[in-house]
Design a protein that fits this description.
The protein is α/β, with parallel strands linked by helices and 265 residues long. The protein is 23% helix and 32% strand. The longest helix has 11 residues.
Length: 265
C-alpha cells in the first residue's frame, strides 16, 4: 500500500447490502492511520486491506446515527483483545462519550488502554517521522450535532512543512453555506450523495442529505480537485451510474465511491 491513501471500507447509506457496507473511510499517511466514521463491519473491512484495527491512531465520528457508529465498540474491543496499550484518540459529538460508557458498562468491558475523547472544534495532529496528518472538524447541516472533517497530509523537511494532500469529508449533510469555506480548494471532496435529484430531489433536504447534483454544485463552488460521491442509498444498488451522470453534468471530475476502492495520494 502507498504511504498515503484513502480506502473506502463502506459506502452505503442507512442499510447495507452484501457488497456495500456502512460508512467508513480509512486514511493513511506515512505510518499514521485515521478512520473517518466506524460503520458496522469496519474492522472486518480493515482486515481485508491487511491493516489491523490496532494500527489506528485516531477515529473521527461525524454524528451519532447508528450506521456511522455501531462499528466503534467492536473496533475498540478488538484492540483490547490484541493487548493494545497506547492511547486511542476519538473525535466526535458530545453524546459519543455516554454511548461508549453505556456499551462498556452493559457488556462488562474495560478497554485496558487510554481512550482520549475530544469534541469539535478540537483539532488533532498525528506525527510519524516526517509525516504529519492534520485533522480539523467543521459543522455541517444534518440532524443534531453533526460534523465534517478536513484532513491534510503534511511532510516536514529542511525547507519547512509542505502539504502533500488535502481531503474533506462532509459526513451526512444537506448543502449549506456553513461548511463551504472549510472545504474550499481541497484535492478530494468526499460528499454526501444519498439520492438522485430526479427521484428524491424534493424530500432529500428534509432528511438532512444531499443529491448527487447538490454534491456537484458544492464541488464546483468550492473549486475542489476531485469529487467523490458517498453514502449512496440502497435504492440505487446496481444503478449508481445515474448518480454519477447527474453529478458529472455539473462537475466532470467526479467518481462514485465503491467498497474497497483505493485512491493513492
Amino acid at each position: 500500500m502507498s504511504s498515503s491513501s484513502i480506502v473506502f471500507l463502506g459506502t452505503s447509506a442507512g442499510t447495507p447490502t452484501p457488497s456495500e457496507w456502512f460508512p467508513s473511510i480509512l486514511v493513511t499517511h506515512g505510518g499514521a492511520y485515521l478512520l473517518l466514521d466506524a460503520g458496522e463491519g469496519a474492522q472486518i473491512r480493515m482486515l481485508e486491506t491487511g491493516i489491523g484495527p490496532g494500527r489506528l491512531d485516531v477515529i473521527a465520528i461525524t454524528h451519532m446515527h447508528g450506521d456511522h457508529v455501531f462499528g466503534l465498540p467492536g473496533l475498540i474491543q478488538s484492540m483490547s483483545m490484541s493487548a493494545r496499550s497506547r492511547p486511542l484518540s476519538i473525535l466526535g459529538p458530545v453524546r459519543l462519550r455516554p454511548f461508549l460508557e453505556q456499551v462498556f458498562s452493559l457488556t462488562d468491558f474495560d478497554p485496558g488502554f487510554p481512550i482520549e475523547l475530544a469534541v469539535p472544534p478540537y483539532r488533532f495532529e498525528v506525527a510519524k517521522g516526517n509525516s504529519v496528518l492534520r485533522l480539523e472538524p467543521f459543522p455541517v447541516c444534518h440532524v443534531g450535532e453533526s460534523y465534517g472533517y478536513r484532513v491534510e497530509g503534511l511532510i516536514r523537511g529542511r525547507g519547512g512543512v509542505k502539504k502533500r494532500f488535502s481531503i474533506a469529508y462532509t459526513g451526512d449533510t444537506r448543502p449549506c453555506n456553513e461548511y463551504l469555506r472549510h472545504i474550499e480548494g481541497v484535492d478530494i471532496l468526499i460528499h454526501d450523495a444519498t439520492f438522485s435529484q430526479k427521484t428524491h430531489g424534493r424530500e432529500v433536504w428534509e432528511y438532512g442529505h444531499s443529491t448527487a447534483l447538490d454534491a456537484a454544485e458544492v464541488a464546483r463552488r468550492a473549486e475542489v480537485g476531485v469529487l467523490v460521491l458517498f453514502h449512496k442509498s440502497v435504492r440505487y444498488q446496481g444503478r449508481g451510474e445515474g448518480l454519477l451522470d447527474e453529478a458529472k453534468n455539473v462537475f466532470p471530475n467526479t467518481i462514485l465511491a465503491e467498497d474497497g476502492m483505493r485512491l493513492l495520494l
